[in-house]
Amino acid sequence: QVQVVESGGGLVQAGGSLRLSCAVSGRTFKFSNYAMGWFRQAPGKERDLVAAISGSGGTTYYTDSVKGRGTISRDNAKNTVYLQMNSLKPEDTAVYFCAAQLRINEYVPRNKDEFSYWGQGTQVTVSS
Question: Are strands 122-127 and 10-13 parallel, antiparallel or unpaired?
């Protein structure tokens, strides 16, 4: 069993920055065996991938809309994954979800259906 908890959301002005954190825990659990992803969902919209990272941190993926503005990283010693978002736009407003998937290679899942464990979400609101 794996638990996923996001934090760090809030209200920011357009052009500002925010860092989201995702803490992962489990009874018998090796964090480096889990690929991690950040997704977001705006009202009336589908839940879409923002960024993903392999278990070792060696491979990352970003959706086009956040390339150059977002950075996904992980600290396997702390069982934590981060999403740094800069130059925020109103279109970034959404609930951001962290997700985990057991993968013991460097494959980076990109589809929400490939992730088994999900956090509760954290709201990010960007004002203009």
Answer: parallel
At residue 104, the pLDDT reads: 83
- d(CA 20, CA 25) in angstroms, rounded, equals 17
DSSP annotation of 29 reads -
Is it the case that residue 9 has pLDDT exceeding 90?
yes
Scan for tokens 């925010």, then name that residue: 18
d(CA 32, CA 54): 8
Amino acid at 20: L
Taking 90 as the threshold, does the pLDDT of residue 28 lie above it? no
- Integer Cα distance of 89 and 92 in angstroms: 5
CA-to-CA dists, residue 117 to 2, 4, 55, 85, 91, angstroms = 7, 7, 14, 23, 26
Q: Which residues contact 83 (CB under 8 A, 6 or more apart)?
A: 19, 20, 22, 38, 50, 51, 70, 71, 72, 96
Q: From start to end of 2-127, where are the E strands? A: 2-7, 10-13, 18-26, 34-41, 48-53, 60-62, 70-75, 80-85, 94-102, 117-118, 122-127
